[in-house]
Amino acid sequence: MIRAYAMGNFPKKGLELYEEMLSLGISPDSLSLSFVIKCILKIGSLIGGTQIHTLVLRDGHQSDTFLLTALMDFYSSCKKYNDAYKVFNEMPVKDTVSWNTLIGCFMKNRRRHDALKVFDTMQSSNVCQPDEVTCLLVLQVCAQLNALEFGEKVHKYIIEHAHGDSMCICNMLITMYSRCGCVDKAHEVFRNMARKNVVSWSALISGLASNGYGRDAIEAFEEMQRAGIPPDGHTFTGILSACSHSGLVHEGRMIFDRMSLLNEAYEFVKSMSIKPDATMWRTLLGACRAHHNPILGERVIEHLIELKAEEAGDYVLLLNTYSSLGGDWTNKASSLRKLLNEKGIYTTPACSTIEIKGKIHEFVADDISHPMRREIYEKLDEIMNQLTIGGYVAEITTPEVEGKRFGSSYHSEKLAIAFGVLSMPPGTTIRVAKDLRICVDCHNFARILSSVYNRAVVIRDRNRFHHFRGGCCSCNGYW
C-alpha cells in the first residue's frame, strides 16, 4: 500500500500508513523504507529524509544497495549533492543503478564535469561498466557542455559494447552531435538507424534548424510526413526554429510563418492540437527579439508565466527588445528592470565553455580565474589588433546581455576563443558554447577572426549555432 501511495499522488497517505505501521510495532524492511523515502521526496521534507537515513543506519541497512540508492536520489533532489555523494562513498557494494544515480545527481546540481569523471571511473573499474542508461546520461551532459571529444569517446564505447542498436541511444547521439555543431555525424547516425520514431525525426530537424540548415530541416519534415510519422510539439518547435533562423519567409508561411508575419506564427502555435510547451514559446520569443516585436513578446511571456516556466533569460530577451528600439521603449525597459528587482529575478553572468584535449574550460566576462589568464588576455589583445586591421570595429551591446567592466572587449566567448587560438593547432576548428545569446560585437569578432586567422569557429548560443568560415556566418544575420 505504501508503494501504491508513493507511486501515485498520495504521499501523505503513504506516510500516515508508515506511522501506523510503526505504532503497531511492525518494523519496516528496506523495500518499505525506499517507498517511504519516495513519499517524503514528493512532499519535499528534508527533515523526514534525514530521519529515515538515521533509521537506515540504526537498523543495519547499510549494505542494502537498493535502499541507499533511494537515499542518494532523495538528497540529490533536495540539492544536497554532498550528502548524496557521501552515501555513495559509504556503500559497500555499488551497482550500475547507484553509479547512474550519482551521475544524475551531478547533472541535477550542475556538476556536469563531475558527471563525466564518473563515466571515466566506471570504465576503469572492474566491477561496474557503463550501461545504456549511463551512456544516455553522459551523452546528455556532452550535449550541454559542447564536449565533442568526450561525446565521440562515449560513442566509441557504445559501438564496442553493442548498445548502438538502441533507438534511445541513437536519438541521443543525434542530439549530442547536433548540439556540438557536427550535423554530418548526426545525419550519419540518423541514416544508419534501422528504425526511426518521432523523436528521431524531431532531433534531426531541430539539429538542422539550430545549425542553420533551414531548407534541409523543412525537407526532413516533409519526408517525415511522407513516412507517415505524425509530428509532435518538438517537431513544430524545430520547424519554427528553421524558419526563424534561416529567413525562409515563403517556406515558413506554408507551415506557420514568421518575420513580419509573427502574429500568424503566434496564432498557429496557439491553435495547435498539441499544447505548446515552454520551448516552443521560447523559440517564438526569440523570433520576437530578432524582429523587434515587443508587443507580441509581452504576450508570449504571459504564456510562459502561465506555464510557470519563465526564466530570467526570457525577461532579458524582452528587455533587450525594448532597449534596441529606443525612444519611449526605454521607459518600458526601466519599468521591467524595476519589476525584476522587485520579484528578485536576477540574471546570472554569461558563461562560455571550450573543450581542449578532453577537458572543459569555463569563462565568464572579465574572467581572472583561469590559471593561464595572463596569456589569454595577451593573446586576445593581439587578436583584437589583428582584427582591427582586418576591418573589425567594436560595438557596444545592450547592458542586459553580459556584464562589461571593459565594454564588450572581454566577453566570455572572446576569452574562450582566445584560449582556443592559444591552445589549439592552427587550422583546428574552435568550438565554443555560450548559455546566453551572442551579442552583435562578439558575432562580428568571430566572423572576422574566421577570415583573418583562416580557421573555422563554431559558437552555440542560447538560440542557435553560428558556423563562421571565411568571414561569413551560417546564420546569415538571423539570430
The class by helix and strand makeup works out as alpha+beta
Bin the helical content.
55-70%
As residue ranges, the low-confidence spans are 397-407
Task: State which percent range the strand residues make up.
Answer: 5-15%
Number of helices: 24
**What's the oligomerization state?**
single chain
Strand order of the largest sheet: 2-1-4-5-6-7
The termini sit apart by 53 Å
Q: Characterize the main sheet.
A: 6 strands, mixed
Shape from CA axes? globular
Family: Belongs to the PPR family. PCMP-H subfamily.
GO molecular function, one term: RNA binding
Pfam family, one: DYW_deaminase
Domain DYW: 410-479
Structure description:
The chain contains 24 helices and seven strands. The protein has 479 residues and is of the alpha+beta class. Helix 15 packs parallel to helix 18 (278-290). It has a domain at 353-396 and 408-473. The protein has helices at 2-7, 11-23, 30-43, 46-58, 65-77, 81-90, 96-108, 112-124, 132-145, 148-160, 167-179, 183-191, 198-210, 214-226, 233-246, 249-255, 262-271, 278-290, 294-306, 312-325, 329-343, 373-389, 412-423, 440-452, and strands at 351-356, 359-364, 405-408, 430-434, 457-460, 465-469, 472-473. 62% of the residues lie in helices and 7% in strands. A hairpin with a 2-residue loop joins strand 6 (465-469) and strand 7. The model is unreliable at 397-407 (pLDDT under 50). InterPro entries: DYW_dom, E2_motif, E_motif, PPR_At4g14850-like_plant, PPR_rpt, TPR-like_helical_dom_sf.
